[in-house]
Amino acid sequence: MVVGMRADSPGAEGTREGGTDFFVSYTHADAKWAEWIAWQLEAAGYRVKIQAWDFDRGSHFVREMRQAAATADRTIAVVSAVYLKSAYGEAEWQAAWAADPSGAGRNLIPIRIEDCPRPGSLSQLVGDDLFDLDAETATARLLATARGGRGKPATEPLFPGHRATVGTTPEPTFPGQLPRMWRAPGRNRNFTGRERLLAAIHLSLQQGRPVAVTALHGLAGVGKTQLAAEYAHRYADDYSLIWWIDAEQIPLIGEKIAALAGPLGLPGDGPASVIAATVLAALARRTGWLVVFDNAEDPVALRDWLPDGPGHVLITSRNPAWGALADPVAVGVFERAESSALLSRRLPGQDPAAVDALAGELGDLPLALAQAADYIAATGTDAAGYLAKFRARRTVLLAKGDDPPYTGTVATAWSVALDRLRAEAPATVQLLQLCALLAPEPIPLTLFSDHPELLESPLADACADGAVDLDLDDVIGAARRYSWVGRTGDTIQLHRLVRDVIADSGRRAPDSAATCRTAVTLLGSVVDSLNPELPTDWPRYWLLTPHLAALCHQAAVRTVDSRHVDRLLYCIAGTVSAHGRGGTFAAGEALARACLDVLADHGSEQALLRVRHELAWHVAQRRPARAERIHLDVLTARRRLLGNDHLDTLASRQEVAWIAGVQRRWTAAEKQYRDVFGARRRVLGLDDSETLITCLRPS
């Protein structure tokens, strides 16, 4: 009998006919652990069933899984945080537990490969842990668990400080062991999601191309460094050398590469540049290495420091322009499920609805989520309480909460970049400050390019026809290099938290009121060029709607002169009218109400009445009686303010007639229409279109 073989191993009386000793249950992220466990068990004489080796290509996964579990004497659950969230993993271990709930037959053996809780029924079973061990110790513990009985190993345990070297045998390497030559950040225990990105990086590196991990929209805090660190830890057993280099300061990269000379056994005397060249030459002759350049900004400057040869290079950067040197992998913000999973893991027991709302308010940005979790844990508040505070004091809270895996906060990271941008590209800062007054939605570039005369220099010069030294594309390019905007076709967009930080900086600037006046004038010029009665113009109104609403809520609007406030109100009234004609009543009503709530004490009465007049049309679609009260109030105010025959007053008189007809008060409606017709014929003439429209209504 092979040492370690069970009494009921292959061919023994206790084994099920056609069955196996163990079925290894795992999730895809832990495949290396599962294969290592299966190899060790088979090497000890056990018969093992594992998806990676035994499920036929093209077969039905669920059927294969059920058959494997049913014909195996025991199931080994490879337990990790990812496994515990897997629906298939849960089904597999629960099926084994249901067949032996008392644990007397040891049908289910949980093996933890990382420090994570064992919830529910799993916590009642005695298992074992293989993490934080060397390969020999882990093998001994695994086989002792498989045998059952006392777990004393056959040989003396290794000295705890021992670290085995990476082997070259065909068996899978032990997944819990780091390479001998290792320099990388510690693993983030709260790392969540990103499975597709990790798979994309792995695939690209296996094809022999350096991978540049860049941030979608260039956002600092999106998790580029955390993704690269997780890749290094997850695939550590693929390499004999992993070396992490902070590449933000190009002049220091040579020294950091030269630091590899010692681990590689190379001479370390002489200038750093010479030693670094020797290291790069040595890497070109070696296999099995990974070098990570973290936070690199300039592809041209880094090019000469990239190692060549049969190894892998991983680059993280806010600059997306790496296509000539590497395969870019865009890193966006979390998907909502990932955001909620991270907050729920960090803050157990929170209301799921509050967690989801908080994730949305934070724009699913990983750094902001980590800061929020740290602040909530430190202060003892809850997700709902933090959400309320954040909505009231956004930029204050963006500077609080220090999560160890990240360096700094959202506010500090982005403020430093903005200061650098002010010195290098002032036109770009002008553009960003205007965009920060608008919504974090697509902004048409024609808002700027079609109206250079309304802008201040140097942005005005870049938007002018025939700009040579600097044009609008250059201005946007500088923002993309500094991770501030995303561009899709002829629109640009800021992440909501980027907008908050830039807007806060703009509010403290001495020219904040002037910037706000420019934003109002730009939007006004676009709305002036549109006609709410033309369906071809409606999509442009829809595009402007969130930006008009956002501008209403800017504090700077309440500090500008009334002329600009009125300009904004008339823009909103025209846009609300377009929504009414286009049938998008909910959006139109929301815009009108947001405007009236915020600017009721700041605009002129006539401009505010124009918005209320358009609002009534939207209200009438669901509550005609309420709409009639609005129309009557507006009519009374306009008669007092403008007189009975002013064009605005005549418009209100016609709407009062219309709403009476909507409520089937035909006699009153006809009388009011005739009164309006007479007034319009007297004021505008019989041939005017408004007079003719009124004439047709009573019929």
Automatic annotation (TrEMBL):
Sequence segments annotated as region (Disordered): 147-174
Q: What is the lineage of its organism?
A: Bacteria, Bacillati, Actinomycetota, Actinomycetes, Frankiales
Q: Which InterPro entries match?
A: P-loop_NTPase, TIR_dom, Toll_tir_struct_dom_sf, TPR-like_helical_dom_sf
Residue ranges of domain TIR in the record: 18-147
What is any one GO biological process for this UniProt entry? signal transduction
What's the superkingdom here?
Bacteria
Protein known as: ATP /GTP-binding protein
